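Loading example: each entry is read as two labelled lines plus one structure line.
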Amino acid sequence: MSGRGASLLVAGLASAFGVVLLQVTSVLATVISGDDVSDIGAVRSALSIVAVLFITIAVYVSSIVTTNTVATIIAGRTRTIALMRLIGSSARDQRRAVAKEGLLVGAVGAVLGAVVGTVLLSIGLWIAVAAGTLPDLRYSLIEPLLALPVLVVVLSTWCAAWVGSRRVLSVSPMQAVGAAQERSLEETVRRPARNIVAVLLIVAGVLFLAGGVVVGQISEYGVLLGLVGGLLSFSGLVLGSHLIMPPVLGLVGRLLGSNAPSRLAAANAQQHPERSSRATIGLVIGVTLITMFAVAGATFEKMMALAMEDPSVRRAISEMVGISLAVISVLVGFSALIAAVGMVNNLALSVLQRSREIGLLRALGFTGGQVRRMILTESLQMTVAAVALGLALGVVYGWAAAQSLFGTVANIGFVTPAVPWLLVVLSVTGTAVLAVAATIVPARRAVSVAPVTALAAG
Amino acid sequence: MRPLAPDSYRGNMENSPSELGLAARVTSLRKIYGSATTSVTALDDVSIGIRRGQFTAIMGPSGSGKSTLMHIMAGLDTASAGQAWLGDTEISALDDAALTVLRRRRIGFIFQAFNLVPTLDVRGNILLPFALDGRKPSTTENNWIEQLIDSLGLADRLTHRPHELSGGQQQRVAIARALATRPELVFADEPTGNLDSRSGREVLALLKAASTGYGQSIAMVTHDPIAASFADRILFLADGRLVEDRERSSAEDISRIMLGMEQRA
């Protein structure tokens, strides 16, 4: 099943990322401290904090992706689950089975990822040493600490499978007998408490963020307010994504045209608000983070350029910002990659589960080309919405970060946010490539659905 | 090609199959599934015509080939041998793209279940054939659609999604969609299979009214004698062959014929 494959890949990527990042910090610490072994501890702990931050982001994103994947698989397996319930299996047993599968997939994926990551890094290290880029020191790649990211990935995949399998509980045995009509998959469960918490978090976050920007003008402690504001508001956004993503998707959908394939695609993406928001929120997080760091760096550079007179200082700052941004972008980009895997998989699963509907459309006179266009539009809608929202959020966060952190240093009041054009171009190209690539397999599958499928009684 | 007013079904001046008063026909149709060693003959030299303006039922026990026959006549499946015609078009000679356009413009469909696109509301589903064709209905077509919506009692349901409708209501939406383009032929595949008997009768009465009232040609596949008793003509299939061709009959007579077919088998 493609869903399991995707979860395996996601767990593997997250685990490989965590292991490699820890190994890289160890290598760097060894290089920096050189022969002075006593120094290695301090350098390591400083680097490790950074590594842990980015590993946390990757694990967070991969958990969201896995939760969504599992929920999507469950939606497609409703009939089988209902049949199991019918012949006497309890909902709890069914759910436990799903979680167990998640644990297994997480464990296999995490270990495989760790092994592959370590092998790749060893090869890279060997080449770097052979080429003379790195000194030939005694690097220790395998250490007990590496078990940590592997364990975290296993546990998070397990939890994600458990959370994602919540829907199992609402499957009725009646759904197996076919007496029940085809029910919309729409998750009509309303969660007023969750909505209120999300809104409160966003409001409080925005207030803190604004406070941070203002206080940042007079005190460097403004950044602490800003940090709290950023964390609060972003948590609110993720928690309330089912409130935010559908209107954004709807807006993008309307921009994509009004012919039948586009309209159906837009309706599909909005039909399941929970599902499409979970599918896209990972990508939103990734793009937001990349943009935030890039805009913060560029805005900082701009502030310094206005505040500093000495061109050599400016150049030094510019160089430093450039290097840090490149490193950070690669680190965050990895999370975006994991999110992209999730989105592609979501699209593939949703096509797989709609074969009956696609068969109906084919029977009624939808051409293969129109089906392909519908899926491409659906994919475009999700990617464009996620990237656009991520860019917008990232610009706000990045600007707020630069203002609250460097406001007093630059002491030139407010500047407009600087957006590095390279980033925008990369995001747009990345979006286009992702949106198209994501549709290749699902579109081929959809076009091969025979119209007779819709007629098969059941 | 496109039918104009309902009355134009009768007194048609065209030649060949339509001259015979047939909306569709098949000649020496054969359909074999599977490979040489495990082949199953679903249709064995079947030749029939569906008369224009009539409500025709195609009956037979499961495995008689009635669904296969319908799939081929509707351009959803291809025959192993023989020809299928819709009006004057030999559809067995068309490629997938041409068949797709033919289904969109000249055929209406009512299936047993999963008739409607779940993401579209009632109006969206009824207008789907036009949307697929990338056009808006003309004024005449709009009047016709409004009339259909009224007579099918869907006026206050237009913004509902399929899952908010009962089975009978869903089938009525499917009927409205199938009739909306005034196709040359409407295929109904066990349209009452998923309904309680009251909603089932309602749906059958509506199909019959479309045929007598508007001269709509309808071919309905069913194994239910009561459903078939609503039709003007009943074709009986067994083991891939046409075994009986009856004018309107009572449900009792139809049951007797079916029972006889089962006993002979």
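The radius of gyration of chain A is 24 Å.
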